[in-house]
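USER:
I would value a second opinion on how I read folds in token form. Give me a protein, with the fold worked out from its sequence. Write it directly below this note and I will take it from there.

ASSISTANT:
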Amino acid sequence: MKIFTAAQIREADAFTIAQEPVSSTDLMARAAGRCADWLLDRFAPSHPFYIFCGKGNNGGDGLVIAHRLLEEGYQVTACLLEYGNRASEDYVYYYRRLQQQYAGRIREIADVTGFPELPATAVIVDAIFGTGLNKPIEGWLAGIIHKINDQHGRHTIVAIDMPSGLMADAGCRNTPVVQAHYTLSFEFHKLAFLLPENASLVGDVQILPIGLSPEYITHTPARYHLADKEMMHTIYTPRPPFAHKGTFGHALLIAGSHGKMGAAVLSAKACLRAGAGLLTCHVPRCGYDIMQISEPAAMTVTDEVQDHSAHFHEQADARYKTIGIGPGLGTAAATARSFEKLLSTYKRPMVIDADALNLLSVYPSLLYQVPAGSILTPHPKEFERLFGPSANDFERLELLSKQAVRLQLYILLKGRYTAIACPDGAVYFNATGNPGMATGGSGDVLTGILTGLLAQDYAPKAAVLLGAWLHGYAGDLAAAQLSQEAMTAGDIVACLGAAFRECFY
């Protein structure tokens, strides 16, 4: 699914109006009608609605919603914010329509003192500003937003299109923003919805289809995308009937150190569950028995050193389709030297995670030796150690994309909506997964999955998109079975088979 900018969304509206054809007022009615349907399904008539409307098209949506709810017998107060002299044409059209039939349900507000007293069961609908907002909200309108937010713990707040004050494509620091419990948006996710700093503002986002032109959507390029099941079906490759274990590649996993062999085991299990034909694990001598007993399907090679690995570069040869390195590896000086030698000799795309990322941050010159097309999988702190701090999530996203292009790597930044930056400048967000995956070893499982897919000759872009999606989906299945609280990283591995089966069989 493409994620369009605010300007592109306006273009999509205009293109639909011109090509369908449909009038702008009818398109507004279509969009607002979807919101009204959602509200009618969720709230009984016992809930009075207070719909706060600005004077642009977002306010017009609010007027349409008010009219529809009134027709259905709901108690509605349309709170019209009187600022400036100009209103959009569609707003004026629906204002006159509402005034003709329900003039008594209109309340004009010209300053903060006009904010109404709300009964206990009231629902607040925010239709003040949408994607057209391009500057911070100031003055008494800011006071209205503060008043709405004061009701957050007592009343349900539903934002239409965008929480007022939030910008689709830029940060919103130092400006008031409505804190919505639900955001009802149209056709596309906005970039702002996917960034951690806005989670408390947008609440539960519902994307409502409104029939914007498929032609525009298909032919208009987008920098940002939301990975979905449909995309995964285009990536997934079924196994040929005469395949054998050599068909699906031989992977090398370099992982583990004293006290951290669990990370290596989890990663190895995930690699094999993801479909690698053969797996060799290079572990320190202390990990030999652990790996052989925990995952007998993996071959195990031990380092000369007891507690950590220092000679794994000697194993990295052409027999391995790919290498996964980092889970539980440790950052000993000898490990760093071996990593440097590995990067100087092995030139296929590899997966770099955990302590291998920490080594790159300590020795940043090694970043330029990482083979093109490799996959880095940092969490936010690891990303900051690698590339420096950012003032906000938008700046961090720009930095993420810039570094992926500069280094010609795939950089997977872990989070609720994991962001995957590609060497061509595109960025994909992964929507699967849940808070139960915030548990030790979850990242090690992801490393194993990605390594297993690369071993099977998935291209790096396909591997990182499919791997992130499967990782999150298996986590969702685990949470459904066990709860978010009780699930562990091993449960994600255990659910990988079901994730493949439910999605591709």
Q: What stands out?
A: The chain is about 40% helix and 15% strand. The CA atoms of residues 75 and 205 lie 25 Å apart. The mean pLDDT is 96. The first helix runs from residue 6 to 19.
